[in-house]
Amino acid sequence: MDTKYVVRGAKVKCSNGGTTCNLNLPKSHGMYVNDKAVLNDHDCVPYSNVLPFGKCDKIKKACVLALAPKWEDAKDTTILKGHPALLAKSVLSCTIGGAITILNDGQKG
Question: For the chain, does the N or the C end have fewer beta carbons within 10 angstroms?
Answer without folding.
Answer: C
